[in-house]
Write a structure and sequence with these properties.
single chain, 484 residues, alpha+beta, Thrombin, subunit H, 5 domains, 6-stranded antiparallel beta barrel, 20 strands, 37% helix
């Protein structure tokens, strides 16, 4: 192209040369534009081909399918069942290990104090006189010595006539007894048994029965309460109301089938500190006191059938014994007219408990006059129940031998067997009505209470050697005690 332009420059005129040059430049520009257009077109085709090729390739790759391995349903089921079984076994082992080791670990880290054993001071079988009675008697003797022997009856009457008592003195006496009652009521509680039931309309309702009891001990873990167990039959829950009207849940420790008395426990942790400062443990006196007859007493608890009632009266008799196996519970009769459903305690003028009210043993001819179990004979039973210990069972009804019968029986001491219960350990060992127990395991038996002392200290399943007198002949019997 450049050669053409040079040759044309020499062959033509100036104007012609210019025309030829313009045409040549125009053709050159057209040629360059066509070349650029072709190059752009080729690039676009290449990009288009690449764009069309790439999706096709990726699509082809994604469309490839992976063939899954067929599932073995039986094998999968076995593995599932094995996993579930291992989980259950692991859970059971974990629970068992926790239940076994948790108390041990807790006791190591936070050792708990063991409950103290409840024991009451021993008293003689026939306590004729208390120390305070002896002091009163000595004071009376000293006063008698100061009175001139030659003082005549007229002078004594004249002196007595100068002593006058008015209504203020009478009121003062009752105020003193009221103060004594308020102090003693700190150991009295109200026990409520709650029974839940469903009525005809499928609504839940609760029945409540209550009785009065007393606090007999504190074993460092719980407060122990003695109460009549009749109202506890079928109870779903037991609630104790203390003298300050505070309430706490209680649990049954043990029940005595013979007396229908029970011991309840209320954990110390469930009792408010303010309540602990108010309540007190009852002071147990003696019902074997020879001077108890014709002395004033006070009935606390529910003597009139309602909680918190109080009655005054006098002891009218103390000699009756309730006829029950392996026991010699004496009763205290009073001239206090109360409810047939009366519960609570009898206290003397020193504020000491001498009886547990129970009108079950009241004879029909005495109506609603209050009677009570003597506390002295109950102490052994209360101790056993408070410590939740099983009591040994022999199965005899006994009595002391009257002195008039000693010569006829040819003995001077022993416990007379009046009756033997059917299918009892005593009957199985061959003991019969009319036998006299003179010793048990080389321990001389002088009274029926002495026999009960030995039985109280024995344990169920113990075998004791009895020495008996039967129609003037000595016999031996080995008795394996049962559970009462």
């Amino acid at each position: 192209m450049q050669e053409i332009i040079v040759s044309a420059a020499f062959a033509f005129t100036r104007n012609q040369k210019k025309d030829i040059l313009k045409k040549a430049i125009g053709r050159l520009r057209v040629s360059m534009e066509e070349w650029e257009k072709e190059k752009n077109t080729a690039g676009q085709d290449a990009v288009k081909e690449q764009a069309e090729y790439t999706p096709t390739t990726q699509s082809d790759f994604l469309r490839e399918t992976i063939k899954q391995k067929p599932v073995n349903k039986k094998k999968l089921l076995r593995r599932t069942l094995l996993t579930v079984a291992m989980a259950v076994v692991f859970g059971l082992v974990a629970c068992f290990t926790f239940l076994v080791l948790e108390p041990v670990i807790s006791n190591r880290l936070y050792p708990e104090e063991e409950a103290e054993e409840v024991r009451f001071p021993e008293e003689t079988a026939t306590e004729e006189m208390r120390p305070e009675d002896m002091l009163v008697e000595e004071e009376q003797e000293d006063a008698a010595e100061t009175v001139p022997a030659e003082l005549e009856d007229e002078q004594i009457e004249e002196l007595l006539s100068q002593v006058q008592f008015g209504l203020s003195d009478y009121q003062f006496l009752y105020e003193e007894m009221a103060e004594l009652a308020r102090e003693a009521e700190r150991s009295v509680v109200t026990v409520t048994g709650v029974v839940s039931d469903i009525d005809w309309f499928n609504d839940i309702y609760e029945n409540e029965a209550s009785a009065s009891g007393i606090i007999v001990a504190n074993n460092s873990k719980s407060i122990l309460i003695l109460v009549s167990a009749g109202m506890l039959d079928g109870a779903d829950s037991i609630v104790v109301t203390f003298c300050d009207q505070s309430r706490a849940d209680a649990e049954l420790v043990q029940k005595d089938a013979a007396t229908q008395l029970a011991i309840l426990s209320v954990p110390l942790l469930d009792i408010e500190e303010e309540t602990m400062d108010v309540i007190q443990i009852a002071s147990l006196g003696s019902s074997n006191n020879g001077t108890l007859l014709a002395t004033p007493v006070m009935a606390l608890g529910s003597p009139m059938g309602t909680s918190g009632s109080v009655c005054y009266g006098m002891v009218t008799s103390t000699g009756a014994v309730v006829d029950q196996a392996d026991s010699a519970y004496k009763t205290i009769a009073t001239d206090i007219y109360g409810s047939s459903n009366a519960t609570g305690v009898l206290i003397n003028m020193d504020g000491m408990v001498i009886g547990i009210i129970d009108n079950v043993n009241t004879s029909e001819d005495k109506g609603n006059l209050l009677t009570a179990y003597g506390i002295s004979e109950l102490k052994r039973t209360i101790e056993k129940m408070s410590n939740n210990k099983e009591r040994a069972y022999l199965g005899i009804h006994g009595a002391d031998i009257p002195k008039e019968a000693w010569a006829g029986l040819g003995i001077s001491e022993g416990a007379y067997v009046r009756e033997v219960e059917m299918d009892s350990p005593a009957m199985a060992a061959g003991i019969q009505s009319g036998d006299v127990v003179v010793s048990i395991d080389d321990t001389p038996i002088m009274t029926y209470n002495g026999l009960l002392d030995v039985l109280y200290n024995a344990e169920p399943e113990d075998t004791l050697e009895f020495v008996l007198m039967r129609q003037g002949r000595e016999m031996n019997a080995d008795v394996t005690l049962g559970v009462r």
